[in-house]
Amino acid sequence: MKVSALAVALMAAYSASHAADLLTAYREALANDPSYAAARAQRDADQEKRTQAKAGLLPQVGLQASTNWNQADVTMAGGASQLSRDYNSNAYGIQLTQPLFRWQSWVQYEQGDLAAAMADTQLSLTRQDLTLRVAQAYFQVLYAQDALDAVTYLRRASDEQNRAAKASFEKGVVTVTDVHEAQARLDLAQAQELTAQQQLGLARANLTRLTGQPVASVAKLPVAVKLAPPHPIAADEWLAAAGQNNLGVHLREMAQDMSALAARRAAAGHLPTLDLVASRGVQNRTTMGVDRVEANTVGVQFTLPLYAGGYISSQQREAALLRVKAEAELDDARKGAQLAAQQAWLNLTSGLAQVKALEASQQSSQTALDSNKLGYQVGVRINIDVLNAQAQLADTMQRLSKARYDTLMAQLQLKAAVGALSDADVQQLNALLVD
Asked: pLDDT tens, 349-365?
């Protein structure tokens, strides 16, 4: 009763929901998925690094002001007389500094541009991941619905066979064992149906978590649809493309470039800097009278670091080690991308073969069931033969459904492995679905 109540509650939660297809679910996820929203905000924040880095090349303007109370005791030569003065002094001014040569700032500017490009690539990678997650959640709903249809068929068939067994027992044609077997299969099918209802509710809840929109029904994949093989067919071409075009690989390549810039920036710590400095200041001092001094200055300021306690040298060693780390991570990313491409290619090609085999198996299972039913009616087959044939057909239906969706997911994963997964792929896949 508890399982039944839970299943009913999960199904009822979507009674006021709307129907959706894959493209609609994907667009809603782009608008509502929290992880993607966080990734967008992070990308926008990282874009500011370009502006921050550019600031190191632009003029810096500062305003200074001060006021002081002063007390001075002055003793004349020979100690003949002594003066005591209390007075107030005020000063204010403005200073402009324009970097003329700061190699560190130029390297930092390049780092800012690269950081912004990395942010764009990271967002693309997150969007690609969202595409896969939405597709996976959508196919889970379709598979859960297909599984429910299969066990519902099995439950109805088992109920029909149970009634037939009872009728035959009353006529003395079969033994009570046939009735017990049929009842046991019916009870099992009913339990499986309740579990399938629960799984369907959970699958819909998972899709809702991504899209933010409860879904009552989804567009389905037609039974007669033909799944396309990979193009190109050769696995080596996909592996080569993954090593070059995978978005994760691009990120690691950028990280390697960033480590090279960090090494250049650390080395620039030994170089001199040259700045244009212009200032205007006013100082007022009140003693016996009022003194006012106004000064304007323009000049260049040269600075050459001589010794910083080993800090700059340590930075250079750190940058060199981080560059080695970035190279190792890039190599690992390439291998990982190629492995992902190989796995997706194998899943796709074997999935296509599995779908073809299971389609033939489903037809054979249906033929076997029809033959067993006819044999049971004429007395050459027993009840358990029919029950087993029904269970085999239901199992084959579920396995075929899963194989089809796994194959479609492998297509998307293969595209993602080579960095080619786009909205167009979602639209193309969505075109296969029917209400």
From this structure: 999 999 999 999 999 99
Question: How many residues in the chain?
Answer: 435
Sketch the domain layout of the chain as residue ranges: 2-59+103-270+310-430
Bridge pairing between strands 82-101 and 60-75: antiparallel
Distances from the Cα of 234 to the Cαs of 246, 396, 404, 414, in angstroms?
A: 18, 30, 21, 13
Which residue do the tokens 């970097």 mark? 99
Judged against a pLDDT cut of 50, whether residue 327 lies above it is answered with yes
The predicted structure's pLDDT at residue 80: 60
**Helix residue spans in 13-84 (DSSP H):** 22-32, 34-54
**pLDDT value at residue 290:** 61
Question: CA 61 → CA 64, 98, 280, distances in Å?
Answer: 10, 9, 12
- Span 142-181, pLDDT tens digits: 999 999 999 999 999 889 888 888 888 888 877 888 889 8
The closest of 402, 404, 413, 403 to 144, measured between CA atoms, is 402
332-344 exposure pattern, b = at least 16 Cβ within 10 A, e = fewer: ebbebbbebbbeb
> Pick from 213, 278, 263: which is nearest to 19 by CA?
213
At CA 285, angle to CA 281 and CA 290, rounded to 5?
110
Which stretches does DSSP call E strand in 34-187?
60-75, 82-101
Report whether pLDDT(384) > 50.
Answer: yes
Among 28-42, 174-188, 324-338, name the one with the lowest average pLDDT: 174-188
CA dist 108 → 61, 262, 306, 308, 368 (Å) = 20, 8, 22, 20, 73
- Phi and psi at residue 214, to the nearest 5°: -60, 140
The 3-state DSSP class for residue 295 equals strand
Q: Which CATH architecture has domain 2-59+103-270+310-430?
A: Up-down Bundle (1.20)
